[in-house]
Amino acid sequence: MAWMHRGFRTLMMQRRMKFIGVPIIILGGSLAAGWLSAAVYPYFFPFRGTKIDVIGLSGWQSPLGLMLVLYFVWNTYHFAKQNFGVLSIYRAKSGSGRRTADLVYALTVHLIVTAIGIAAMLHLVGAGTMEMCMFGTLAGVAAMLSLETKLSPRIAFILTDASRLILISWSGLWGFAISGMNHWLVAIGLSSHVYANHQNRSPHVFSVVLVGLGTLTFGLLFVVVPFTGIYSTSGPPPLPWWIRATIPAVSLRLGLGFVHFLYDRWIWKLSEPDVRAAIGADLFREAQRIPA
């Protein structure tokens, strides 16, 4: 969306180091980190798709290991700030809600979703903890709804955000699934809305193409490439060279994620006048009715 938007593309070309140079440096550094990790740390290798399996603790000292830690922390913050951004958009359109409450709610919910989800999958929490988590979620939702003065999509989004925490209390997998689906459907919806208004086209083609490409890529990463059962956990993995060669590709995927985090911040930072003039005009304009 950034490069297809004429106004924002003009802004990027005026600041090439920020919008082009920094992403290239990140992607190049990510490839270098993957190559170095594959060459120096033999216990660090791709397991399935973008998941990394580590035998022993030494792998986490590798450049790719450090990238994984950074990615996990940044991704958690990224998810939470997107939810805050959506609440802010609805707050601006409806005049309902409070900024500080939105920020605290978005950050708290996603932090707890991440912590409880990981703890549940590792069997580190009991039923009592889950019940307390659900009670706290309902209390937080009630507090947020008490600040709403108008009926608006904010209410639906507040409930959807909380549903992740309730579902993760029942099943860690479903909680993470709802969290991921919520994040990407919102991202695709916002981008298609801006793109459609800017190009005076229907938003459906943009959305369908992105969902299709995402589904295909997911299938290639997590379904088609079967890395399971080809190594022994008792020692250095006797991996073929072609599997070792995929490590830089995995690190490039992480680097692309970092670039995505930055672009997502740059595109939607409407507090900057240039961004507000380029993106905000199409974001807050009602979608055009395109005849079939």
Model description:
- By secondary structure, the protein is mainly alpha-helical.
- The chain has one domain.
- Helices cover 73% and strands 3% of the residues.
- The chain contains eleven helices and two strands.
- A two-stranded antiparallel ribbon has the order 1-2.
- Helix 2 runs antiparallel to helix 3 and helix 4 crosses helix 7.
- The longest helix is centred in the first third of the chain and has 32 residues.
- It is globular.
> What is the straight-line distance between the termini?
23 Å
- Largest sheet properties: 2 strands, antiparallel
Q: Please trace the helix and strand order, writing H or E for each element.
A: HHEEHHHHHHHHH
| pLDDT averaged residue by residue | 78
Radius of gyration: 21 Å
Shape call = globular
How many domains? The number is 1
* Helix content class: over 70%
Strand adjacency order, main sheet: 1-2
Q: What is the number of helical segments per DSSP (H or I, 4+ residues)?
A: 11
Given the helix and strand composition, which structural class is it? Answer: mainly alpha
The amount of beta strand, in percent, is under 5%
The beta-strand count equals 2
Low-pLDDT segments, ≥5 res? 46-56, 226-236, 287-292
Topology, element by element:
Layout: H1 6-14, H2 16-40, E1 44-48, E2 51-54, H3 63-94, H4 99-121, H5 127-146, H6 153-170, H7 172-199, H8 203-224, H9 241-244, H10 247-268, H11 273-283
Antiparallel strand pairs: 1-2
Helix pairs in contact: 1-11, 2-3, 2-10, 3-4, 3-6, 3-10, 4-5, 4-6, 4-7, 5-6, 6-7, 7-8, 7-11
